[in-house]
């Protein structure tokens, strides 16, 4: 019997995890695996790019978990600089173009994995394509930004557009490089992935680091100088001088191919899959990573949450299923952690606005505590905000802003959300205690106590 | 109507938390609260004493969360240096002795809280009471040890007897002070709260810190010099020179009073309570902290697990119930974290030997990972061992040995144990990921994947 043919579209986390897992479960004469990647790298950590830009880590090689050669040595036929330009699902083939030669041809499949990732939001502004305007999504973006910062053009003034997690990580990189940084955000506070009261803590900390934070403000144009390079970023009634501009506006699912092929997309434009990561209604088409919507277990809705950790899990699930095993991806609870210099930021579950949008009634509790016993050296402050459903007391979400030792505490809440615990149940959790690691009541437990009291109306 | 009378025996974490919580819920004309403490301090962190001895934190005042005066100012009548010498449960009074004046009298109660704590194990060895032999359980112990170390007698050689968490924390303190340290342990490895294979990692790390670790060895005597002070610790066939000896042999429930009064005790000698922390069979007698056994939710047995974090929770529950509210302490999963210098040690759930003793059949998975993305500065190695039940895949326990960022990851497993998750469910947990905080697969998830594969027989 001829080998089955697996075609993977996209050579980063989800696609190559799927390919690698399927390869481990099958022999080459059972399954032939071909992966098409239009760029020049496979299996890289896009999340590491801001740290490369900031000089914290080396790049780009260090950010590549596995090169095309390494994948090939493991029995995966990786075709680099090769773009998939069309899907013929009925005919079970993809159209591919070699970006070097321009040559086009068909490639047949029995199983198709769509791992096309996401593309950065790039508003159609005057000047947006000028030299000096940078993204931070690909290793090529990273190289261009590193070169620009090394060049140190002009007065070393940078503007970051967008204060979500990509924006604040870019701001950190620029500060580390000694640049003067302005961050422009259209929301009322940085980190719109937090409630505004928690975002305000991030703003205060960023301001304290010497970062200018401009909120409630839309960028209207990128101004260029006589040399055609970026000179400033314009907002209503003001210009912010800039030798470098970094776009940190987030990403959208890259699903043009899927849309043309009539595959089902959610409201964000992300592909819709079943729990086995099979595209809904298509027995032999799978999708994972930044191009899909995932089930949010707290709200019961699908959402677009582009994160490398999800992409890897999706790839693992797809590869297991394609390889003849069985696995599912049950969903997410919305956990995210990031930092800007020594400020740690974390969230999981629903924000207040999200809870309201779901029709949920809730109580909130916000507490201050420390990362270690108060008397222990290095104890750093943190603020924990917790949302719990009225009546039932079910945990709905947690947000944490603090310093060292703050962010990963959100994991406790992520597990509690997954297990659908109440905040009252959480007050009794047997979390690790010793003075170098926690106060006798861990900050998450302090928040749970306060939230449980609020649920009871105390 | 006359006020009800609450008598608290023991002025540390459990007792004073109970008193404080009851005070917040009731008015003084509803509830009169008297607490008897035979020592000189209230509400102190015994867990901080090794760090005081090591010069990491100041003491003793910094280790006192609330002084007798502060408790009195909040409406709790604290009687210091006053020992409760007998309980008359039928007559609803306690016998108390003023340790200054020697005066004895009765004190009536409507509610009685027993928070008598634990006493250190002190084997009946020749020389055990010699000057230079120290405990680390009370602030007075801490003061005596700090004075001895400041004095820096002799060659600054110390022997720590016992390599449990108190022993290893004491060893760290002595190393920090520049003393030459030998730790003597009768088990095969240090940290008998871990499986031997994980304990071996602790031994290697301690040896690397210059600590001499002597295992499988019983101490037979403490040798004294002509001045009557400690000179050496004797084991079979060998003497270990010592200018200071620290006893780190753990503690036993202090329940002599309870035993005399006929209250129910478990196999460890700890008091047995219901989930509301009421002593079984006694409507108005409560107990909490290091003098009780707690329900281990994983094995279904009661165990003696003396930890400040449990004591505080017990006090909170007791105070709520005495104050007219309702609360329960559902039990523990056996979480403990500690460190020796920069080595972090954590466990939760059952060890292999404990699982076997419960008749459980299990698989194990042991993995190596890092605290941050491998390419991110400060990524430190850690080893995670996971136990899962055969067949069901239910998580049974986790042990972690590593460096910075290792120990508190055990909290994820503690919540998963509480929620009775399977290791397969854990593989999908939505834990926080960003390069400064975790590899794309958190070490706990890597262990869960390996354990889930072992459950399936892969």
Strand elements of chain A, count? 25
How widely separated are the two ends of chain A?
A: 70 Å
- DSSP strand content of chain A: 25-35%
Poorly predicted ranges of chain A (pLDDT <50, ≥5 residues)?
none
CATH architecture of the largest domain in chain A: 3-Layer(bba) Sandwich
Which chains make the largest contact? A-B, 67 and 67 residues
Tally of discrete structural domains of chain A: 3
Evaluate the radius of gyration of chain A.
23 Å
Largest sheet of chain A: 5 strands, parallel
InterPro entries (chains A, B): FAD-bd_OxRdtase (IPR050260), FAD/NAD-bd_sf (IPR036188), FAD/NAD-binding_dom (IPR023753), FAD/NAD-linked_Rdtase_dimer_sf (IPR016156), Pyr_nucl-diS_OxRdtase_dimer (IPR004099)
Family (chains A, B): Belongs to the class-III pyridine nucleotide-disulfide oxidoreductase family.
Organism (chains A, B): Streptomyces klenkii
GO molecular function (chains A, B): oxidoreductase activity
Provide keyphrases for this structure.
globular, alpha/beta, 3 domains, 5-stranded parallel sheet, FAD/NAD(P)-binding domain, homodimer, 458 residues
Describe the structure.
The structure is a homodimer of 458-residue chains. The first copy, chain A, is of the alpha/beta class and 458 residues long. Chain A has 3 domains: 4-119 and 252-322, FAD/NAD(P)-binding domain (3-Layer(bba) Sandwich); 133-249, FAD/NAD(P)-binding domain (3-Layer(bba) Sandwich); 345-456, 2-Layer Sandwich (Enolase-like, domain 1), CATH 3.30.390. Chain A has 12 helices and 25 strands. Chain A has helices spanning 13-25, 49-53, 68-73, 139-151, 165-176, 196-208, 256-260, 308-322, 352-357, 410-418, 423-426, 443-456; strands at residues 4-9, 31-37, 77-80, 82-88, 93-98, 104-108, 111-114, 118-120, 133-134, 157-161, 180-184, 212-214, 219-224, 230-235, 238-241, 244-247, 251-253, 285-287, 294-295, 302-303, 336-340, 343-349, 362-370, 381-389, 395-402. In chain A, the strands form 7 sheets. Chain A has a 5-stranded parallel sheet. In chain A, helix 6 (196-208) links the parallel strand 11 and strand 12 (212-214). The termini of chain A are far apart. The mean pLDDT of chain A is 96. At the A-B interface, helix 8, strand 21, strand 22 and helix 10 of A face helix 8, strand 21, strand 22 and helix 10 of B.
């Amino acid at each position: 019997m001829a080998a089955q043919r697996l075609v993977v579209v996209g050579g980063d986390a989800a696609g190559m995890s799927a390919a690698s897992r399927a390869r481990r479960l099958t022999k080459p004469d059972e399954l032939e695996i071909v992966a098409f990647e239009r760029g020049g790298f496979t299996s890289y950590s896009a999340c590491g790019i801001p740290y490369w830009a900031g000089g914290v880590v080396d790049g780009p090689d260090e950010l590549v978990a596995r090169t095309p050669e390494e994948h090939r040595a493991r029995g995966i036929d990786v075709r680099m600089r090769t773009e998939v330009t069309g899907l013929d699902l009925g005919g079970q083939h993809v159209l591919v173009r070699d970006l070097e030669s321009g040559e086009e041809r068909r490639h047949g499949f029995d199983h198709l994995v769509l791992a096309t990732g996401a593309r950065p939001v790039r508003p159609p502004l005057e000047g947006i394509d000028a030299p000096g305007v940078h993204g931070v999504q690909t290793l090529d973006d990273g190289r261009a930004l590193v070169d620009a910062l090394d060049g140190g053009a002009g007065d070393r003034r940078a503007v970051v557009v967008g204060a979500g997690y990509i924006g604040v990580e870019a701001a950190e990189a620029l500060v580390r490089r000694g640049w003067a940084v302005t961050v422009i955000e259209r929301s009322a506070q940085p980190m719109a992935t937090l409630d505004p009261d928690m975002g305000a803590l991030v703003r205060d900390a960023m301001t304290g680091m010497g970062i200018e934070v401009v909120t409630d403000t839309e960028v209207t144009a990128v101004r260029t100088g006589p040399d055609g390079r970026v000179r400033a970023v314009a907002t209503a009634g003001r210009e912010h001088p800039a030798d470098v501009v970094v776009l940190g506006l987030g990403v959208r699912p890259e699903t043009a191919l899927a849309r043309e092929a009539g595959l089902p997309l959610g409201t964000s434009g992300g592909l819709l899959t079943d729990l086995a990561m099979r595209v809904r209604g298509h027995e032999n088409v799978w999708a994972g990573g930044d191009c899909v919507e995932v089930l949010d277990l707290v709200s019961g809705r699908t959402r677009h949450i582009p994160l490398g950790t999800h992409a890897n899990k999706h790839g693992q699930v797809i590869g297991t299923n394609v390889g003849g095993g069985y696995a599912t991806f049950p969903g997410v609870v919305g956990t995210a952690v990031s930092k800007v210099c020594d400020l740690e930021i974390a969230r999981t579950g629903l924000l207040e606005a999200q809870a309201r949008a779901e029709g949920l009634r809730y109580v909130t509790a916000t507490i201050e505590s420390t990362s270690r016993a108060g008397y222990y050296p290095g104890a750093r402050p943190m603020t924990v905000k917790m949302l719990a459903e009225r009546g039932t007391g079910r945990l709905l979400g947690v947000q944490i802003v603090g310093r060292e030792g703050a962010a990963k505490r959100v994991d406790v809440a992520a597990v509690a959300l997954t297990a659908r615990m109440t905040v009252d149940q959480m007050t009794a959790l047997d979390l690790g205690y010793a003075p170098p690691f926690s106060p006798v009541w861990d900050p998450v437990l302090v928040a749970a106590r306060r939230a449980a009291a609020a649920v009871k109306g105390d």
